[in-house]
DNA sequence: TCTTTAATGTAGTTAATTTACGAAAATGTG
DNA sequence: CACATTTTCGTAAATTAACTACATTAAAGA
């Protein structure tokens, strides 16, 4: 709940003087955020510490912090909010809603990711002798994408979206093998089983999945991602986007770790594709 | 213009030290709004007055006022700016940059999409007797994802990431066939050729690609998407995300067109997967 | 009415921000 | 290339704002 609404709802819980402060803020919030604690106290006809206590009561660190929160709740220009598609939405409407929900989901995912986990994952990946990407169902395309990306790095990669192949691959895995498993829920039995098998072969298992999930527990390293999934649609949407972005992050970390000379290599890969394309007109 | 964008655009107008401050703020704006001027100065390795001058340069009354503006722009609409990853960025920094760039890219893509093209694409898809998804290279995983999604709709679908298979598939295509081609550039010779072949077989060709590209011209319907691609990295990143989101939009349009009874079907598909998963603890 | 507790204000303390000024760097000029 | 001028930046002092501790008052209960 945003701060302004919070003031509104808690109005009855405040003491007499605190309510005076609340009234002033609700009447002209724009003035409030630019006022000093002294000014505001005078406007509400209370003492400065009362204003301060009022702020603390709203779970803020103090007056300046409170102003920050208030400012944010005032800037309600409908940010990236996940919005549900309605039955009677037109193309224009549902297109926007879905794009906005996707952006909102990425935002949530971003905040939930632990950069240290990313860093450790990059550590492991850079030392890998072979990287395998595994994903089932909707995550199989994510795994394919990862393969495509890391293939460009001139690292031995493979990718499976088939449980039997995964299991066979695990048996042949060794200490230098790194497996990257993608699963939104982290509860797909077959995949959790694969993680266990792989670890029995001393391979390293990195999972991109949900926090505290069976898969996360079964992995050497879990990069946990929180994604708000719109369950109305019964189709995973946002989680793929988040996982793909995690791939981008890992790939970026990988290239950074390898240094500038390595990037020359990427350039050459890209140039190798060029001749398969039609030239762009003149302006470039 | 919001404060964060303003910092981004004026980056070149700042002096050396002010730019250091700008970098710190752009890297972690959330930290910045909660920091004191002293902390921020230390983070940017400049003096406190420099931070203050930086604030004034952005038409604010001073540091506290600046924080207020920044807080608002963080809460507001599109605070995300596409930013390049630096050589010496840490995991925290590049993770944020990439997520933010992705969000910014989706925002640009959203604005560039013509809802009427979406609508027509949905028209065509709902009437299809068979849908094939084609993509090469980085787009092959996009095509796979589309297949996975539309497969749930109980529509005959196929997916190819191999040119020969695509061509064979085109020969066998008929009037009821719909091909969906994914290509960021729209300049991949092989794919443009496939589009032509398909149309010769009277199949409908929908392309998700760049505006005014050879592929767009060769298609029955082009859903054109503009994506700001960070060419520094030599790896396609944002375009896949945008294309996947377009898939989501098309799939959504598809289900809406089919009506509520159709969505019951999706629910059943989802429930069919359930038993392959570990139960979630008790709280749900 | 007295006691106890909660609420509020006063005054002092601490912390943060801003200003004034001077040094250093950068830029332009003879 | 030396010198002058302007811009940039930092140090230190001054100012302002915010917070704490404590005293006082009001309210509630016995």
From TrEMBL, chains A, B:
Residues 121-260 form the SIS domain. PANTHER family: GLUCOKINASE (PTHR30514), HTH-TYPE TRANSCRIPTIONAL REGULATOR HEXR-RELATED (PTHR30514:SF1). GO terms for molecular function: carbohydrate derivative binding; DNA binding; DNA-binding transcription factor activity. The keyword DNA-binding applies. InterPro entries: Homeodomain-like_sf, HTH_RpiR, RpiR-like, RpiR-like_SIS, SIS_dom, SIS_dom_sf, WH-like_DNA-bd_sf. Keywords: DNA-binding, Transcription, Transcription regulation. This is MurR/RpiR family transcriptional regulator. NCBIfam families: PRK11302.1. Residues 1-77 form the HTH rpiR-type domain. One of its GO terms (biological process) is carbohydrate derivative metabolic process.
């Amino acid at each position: 709940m945003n701060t302004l609404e919070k003031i509104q709802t808690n109005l009855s819980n405040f003491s007499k003087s605190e309510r005076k402060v609340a009234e002033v803020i609700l009447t002209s919030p724009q003035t409030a955020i630019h006022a000093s604690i002294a000014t505001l106290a005078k406007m509400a006809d209370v003492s400065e510490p009362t204003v301060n206590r009022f702020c603390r009561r709203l779970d803020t660190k103090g007056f300046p912090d409170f102003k920050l929160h208030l400012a944010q709740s005032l800037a309600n220009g409908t940010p990236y909010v996940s919005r549900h598609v309605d039955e009677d939405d037109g193309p224009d409407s549902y297109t926007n809603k879905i794009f906005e929900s996707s952006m909102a989901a990425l935002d949530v995912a971003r905040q939930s990711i632990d950069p240290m986990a990313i860093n450790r994952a990059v550590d492991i990946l850079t030392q890998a002798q072979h990287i395998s990407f595994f994903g089932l169902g909707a995550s199989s395309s994510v795994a394919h994408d990862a393969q495509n990306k890391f293939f460009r790095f001139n690292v031995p990669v493979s990718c499976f979206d088939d449980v039997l192949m995964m299991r066979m691959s695990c048996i042949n895995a060794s200490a230098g093998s790194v497996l990257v498993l993608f699963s939104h829920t982290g509860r797909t039995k077959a995949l959790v089983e694969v993680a266990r098998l792989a670890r029995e072969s001393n391979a390293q298992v990195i999972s991109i999945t949900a926090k505290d999930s069976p898969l996360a527990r079964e992995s050497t390293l879990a990069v946990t991602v929180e994604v708000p999934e719109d369950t109305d649609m019964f189709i995973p949407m946002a989680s793929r986007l988040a996982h793909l972005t995690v791939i981008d992050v890992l790939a970026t970390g990988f290239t950074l770790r390898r240094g500038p000379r390595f990037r020359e290599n990427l350039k050459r890969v890209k140039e190798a594709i060029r001749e398969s394309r039609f030239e762009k007109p003149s302006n470039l």
